[in-house]
Design brief:
The complex is a heterodimer of chains A (109) and B (912). By secondary structure, chain A is α+β, with helices and mostly antiparallel strands. Helices cover 54% and strands 18% of the residues of chain A. By secondary structure, chain B is of the alpha+beta class. The chains are: A alpha+beta (109), B alpha+beta (912).
């Protein structure tokens, strides 16, 4: 099974979208969710999730609180903030614009 | 997010870092555990699952670092931790740190010290309003008092008034007397009584517009104003300097309205100048400023306030906003033509008009003030600046080499850190922080060193009886300079070792512990450093050699008189009550000459107008039948009968002055050889011929009675000049100089001579007692300064280079112990091994010298003006420097070489 690196710059988008869909997740669940929803094609270098999450915390796109997992371990759960939702919209439209442009270029015959 | 809030958050984060760190670790641990569990569930063995989880996750250390970095506090925090770590690392190798610190302190300190003088002499702006708008009329090379038709350097007071009124380019103009007026003075108390002894006070005559034009506000009272200068003789007011107020007035808060007596006039103090204001001449700081209208109180014989054609003033203008220097020059020159011709007593002869039309005033920006010391010291200071900069470079090369050796020794530590995931730039930053700590510590030590050194330098430079009042205290520019030098050195010596240290074959280093993979290239860099050190040292040594030999050549110059065993002093006859040039003083002079001549140990004595380097009085001599050009200056010296014996200036023909030459007999003169050769008809014998001194009037007619050998009057490297000697019985002079040729002990003679003078008139004041030799030597101050300091720094450079060679070779030997062991096991002799190392040093030094020689030759051409009796290429200096360097370098290398030859093959082979 070939696994592809995620396109640069899309990590925020993936995290935001995942949180928008699933609400409250801890780091591992976010990584796992991205991988599964992309049918195992998108492979996040899982570690890089954490610096990204820290940056998103600073920018107030996500909020974090400590809770316990099903296995009764302490975990930091992330949820989307209002700013995060706005950012998701921005990132989405940017992404669509880029993808649309790329598609037009490669489909030109 | 607003900026202050952001800052606040970052600061808070800096303190909450450990919490943050713990949270992250926990989060990541959970992630890894869950992933591992997932892998186990899908059938992997626990160990393999753990491995897979880690691979999927990436480098934990680096991720943690990146996450924390998001919070931005990392920069500050890592700097602090780097600094602490660096300081600890430096303290672990105290010897290296000490050597590095000392060389840095010396290097930075020397640079700061020289720069502080350079700054004070050349760079500092005058402490006045908008100094950039100030221009001087002329080039600043004039001075004194003259009475010609036109002068473009100094000006008359009436000319100043006209110019101030008529010009269209200056917002104001001020006049400054071109000389400092040193007069006897004393402070009076409230009842008008003197308190204590009188003293020499440095007074400065200025126009009433002076303070106002400069925009200087007094610290107390008022400044001088135009009204103080409006009419002659009736404005005895003065502004005192801050230092005079502190020193002599004991910071009296009621200083205004106190009285000070200058010569015989009582002045009222109207104000105190602000602390930073020292006047407009760098290297002179007057005690007191007096309006030009009072010039006769200080100089009774000089009619400088009224006379249209008596020039004595420097003029300073403040350009109007928007006026260029060119426009101002045009306007000033137009006015020079107009005003010079406009005075009622103008002598509009053909010759005068021709001279006037040729005259052109140059305007010189004078934001940095005027200075008489600038001309003398700017070049020596620039040379010294270059010298100390080179020394600092050598010190940097040394430290780079030491750090390089050390970072190699630390290779394993660094490799481990990199393998554990530390980023390369992080390690480089840490190494650079270490360098920075080192150089900052060196810089701080250096500033301390510089403060001491610059005081000492100023003392040496002053050379005379008083220290030149220069402000060499650190200012912003100086501190900025030192800081820049410090940081630059850190970058210079720290960068390459840091980059090299982190460019590793990780596995090599981890495996071998003492990997030899990079030793070759790393040594290359070390060797390049040694070569450049040797080359720079050679340049400095050759330079020092040239300066020392110039000084020796100057010292060997025959001044035309005998410097040795002559006591000279100045006497001040003013307290005797006689006027300065009163012929009635002549009997006093003769009495002193006779009384002193009779003292035991005294061979000859005489008064004179000048001896050496004291200025001169120039006047043309007119010989019948010669195309006499009154512009050919002849230096006139007025002397006593014993002058030629005292100075031991040999008589060539005729006789010198004697008791038969009296005020009523025929005026006679003794001329120098050069005058006889150039100003009298060729082939004639000047003795018995007459000439006119400045004019053909009968009272200026002189008979030549003798010819003496040429003597130098101004400086040792001058060409023979025309000198004419007159007797003080026939040409009155207010003397200062008294010379005594003695045998025996200087101090004993000095005491008895002073006693004898006092016994004739106890009111005579004796000052500036020294030897003629000392007075001559003082003219070589700048040469001596450059020679001695460059010799000192040259030796320092060689010493530093030797440390460098020793350090590098020790390191090389220790790295090659294994190889040496093999060689010896295979039968190499000890001497072979030693020579192997010594040969390597010899090659390095030879390459360094080969590079240094052309550099030294090029450098010598730059300093040729400071050399005397040498051409730029002096084979002796070159050979000496080369020899010294080679010898010392081989000595420095001998110790490591011997250590190499003592290596025990068995130990060496087991070494690694």
């Amino acid at each position: 099974m070939s696994r592809d690196e995620i396109p640069p710059g899309t990590l925020y988008l993936l995290i935001l979208k995942t949180l928008a869909l699933r609400g409250r997740l801890h780091g591992f669940e976010i990584a796992d969710s991205i991988q599964r929803n992309s049918d195992d094609i998108l492979q996040v270098e899982e570690g890089s999730l954490y610096p990204a999450l820290q940056r998103m915390l600073i920018k107030d796109w996500v909020a974090a609180e400590w809770g316990t997992t099903a296995g009764n371990r302490r975990a930091r759960y992330y949820t989307l903030t209002a700013d995060g939702r706005k950012q998701l919209a921005i990132e989405l439209s940017q992404f669509e614009r880029v993808i649309g442009a790329v598609t037009r270029v490669i489909q030109t015959t | 997010m607003s900026y202050p809030a952001e800052l606040l958050r970052r600061l808070r984060m800096a303190f909450r870092r450990s919490q943050l760190n713990r949270d992250l670790e926990e989060e990541m641990r959970l992630h890894l555990d869950l992933r591992q569990q997932q892998q186990i569930d899908s059938g992997l063995a626990p160990a393999a699952a753990r491995h897979a989880a880690h691979i999927k996750f990436g480098n934990t250390a680096r991720i943690k670092e990146k996450s924390l970095m998001a919070w931005g506090s990392e920069a500050i925090e890592s700097f602090i931790s780097d600094a602490v770590y660096g300081a600890r690392a430096l303290l672990r190798s105290p010897a290296l740190t000490l050597v590095a610190l000392l060389s840095l302190a010396l290097g930075i300190g020397a640079n700061t010290a020289i720069f502080s003088l350079l700054n004070a002499v050349l760079l500092r702006s005058l402490p006045v309003k908008d100094p950039g708008q100030l221009v001087l009329l002329g080039t600043g090379n004039g001075g004194g008092i003259g009475d010609t038709f036109v002068d473009t350097e100094i000006y008359s007071y009436p000319f100043f008034r006209e110019l101030r009124q008529k010009n269209a380019v200056f917002s104001d103009v001020a006049a400054v007397f071109s000389m400092s007026s040193d007069v006897h003075g004393m402070l009076l108390d409230s009842s008008g009584q003197t308190n204590g002894e009188d003293e020499i006070i440095h007074a400065q005559l200025v126009s009433g517009s002076y303070f106002q034009m400069l925009g200087v506000q007094p610290a107390m009272g008022r400044a001088l104003v135009d009204a103080d200068d409006a009419s002659e003789g009736d404005h005895p007011v003065a502004v005192v300097s801050q230092s005079f107020w502190k020193r002599r007035l004991n910071r009296d808060p009621n200083a205004v309205n106190r009285k000070v007596k200058l010569a015989s006039t009582v002045f009222t103090i109207v104000g105190v100048a602000p602390p930073e204001f020292f006047g407009t001449k760098v290297g002179e700081s007057p005690d007191i400023w007096v309006p030009m209208s009072m010039v006769r109180s200080l100089h009774p014989t000089w009619d400088a306030y009224r006379q249209n054609y008596t020039q004595s003033l420097d003029l300073i203008g403040r350009l109007k906003p928007g006026v260029s220097l060119t426009e101002a020059t045009t306007n000033v020159n137009l006015l020079l033509q107009q005003i010079t011709q406009s005075f009622p007593d103008a002598n509009l002869s053909q010759k005068n008009l021709a001279t006037l039309h040729k005259s052109h005033v140059l305007l010189t920006p004078m934001a940095n003030g005027l200075s008489s010391i600038r001309g003398e010291f700017s070049e020596p200071l620039q040379i010294l600046m270059a010298v100390v900069a080179l020394v600092l470079l050598i010190a940097c090369a040394n430290i780079a080499n030491l750090l390089l050796a050390r970072s190699t020794a630390r290779a394993r530590e660094l490799a481990v850190r990199q393998a554990l995931g530390a980023r390369r730039d992080r390690i480089i930053r840490q190494l650079l922080t270490e360098s920075l700590i080192l150089s900052l510590a060196g810089g701080i030590l250096g500033i301390g060193f510089a403060i001491l050194a610059s005081r000492f330098l100023l003392h040496v430079v002053s050379g005379g009886f008083e220290t030149i009042p220069l402000d060499i205290s650190p200012d912003l520019r100086l501190l900025g300079f030192t800081f820049a030098v410090t940081v630059a050195t850190a970058i210079l010596f720290g960068t390459v070792p840091a980059f090299r240290a982190t460019r590793l074959q990780l596995t090599e280093n981890l495996k071998a512990g003492r990997g030899r993979a990079n030793a070759g290239t790393r040594n290359m860099f070390g060797k390049a450093l040694i070569i450049s050190q040797v080359a720079l040292s050679l340049v400095l040594m050759v330079g020092a050699g040239l300066f020392l030999r110039s000084l020796a050549n100057l010292n060997k110059v025959d001044p035309g008189f005998n410097r040795e065993n002559v006591l000279r002093l100045n006497i001040d006859t003013e307290p005797t009550g006689f006027k300065h040039e009163d012929p009635a003083l002549n009997p006093l002079y003769q009495q002193i000459e006779q009384r002193v001549a009779a003292l035991p140990g005294v061979k000859a004595d005489s008064f004179s107008a000048f001896t050496f380097a004291e200025g001169s009085w120039g006047e043309g001599i007119l010989v019948a039948g010669m195309p006499n050009d009154e512009d050919i200056a002849v230096r006139q010296n007025v002397v006593g009968d014993g002058y030629f014996d005292t100075m031991q200036i040999p008589l060539i023909a005729g006789r010198t002055f004697g008791s038969q030459d009296t005020s009523t007999s025929q005026h006679v003169a003794v001329i120098s050889e050069h005058v006889a050769k150039t100003l009298f008809p060729a082939g004639s014998n000047p003795i018995g011929m007459h000439f006119g001194l400045g004019s053909h009037k009968p009272e200026d007619d002189y008979l030549v009675i003798g010819i003496v050998k040429d003597a130098k009057m101004e400086s040792l490297n001058e060409k023979p000049k025309n000198i004419n000697y007159l007797s003080y019985r026939q040409r009155t002079w207010g003397f200062g100089d008294f010379e005594v040729r003695y045998t025996g002990d200087f101090n004993a003679i000095s005491a008895t001579v002073q006693q004898a003078i006092k016994s004739i008139d106890r009111n005579v004041r004796i000052v500036h007692v020294t030897t003629l030799d000392e007075q001559v030597a003082r003219t070589m101050t700048s040469n001596r300064l450059v020679a001695q300091l460059s010799a000192f720094f040259g030796l320092l450079a060689v010493f530093l280079s030797c440390i460098g060679i020793y350090g590098l070779m020790s390191y090389v030997v220790s790295r090659r112990t294994n190889e040496i062991g093999i060689r010896m096991a295979l039968g190499a002799e000890r001497s072979n091994v030693r020579n192997l190392v010594l040969r390597e040093i010899a090659i390095l030094v030879t390459i360094g010298i080969a590079i240094g020689i052309p550099a030294a030759l090029a450098g010598d051409r730059l300093v040729s003006k400071m050399l005397y009796g040498l051409t730029g290429t002096d084979p002796l200096s070159l050979a000496a420097a080369t020899l010294i360097l080679l010898t010392v370098a081989l000595l420095a290398g001998y110790i490591p070489a011997r250590r190499a030859s003592r290596v025990d093959p068995m130990v060496a082979l087991r070494y690694e």
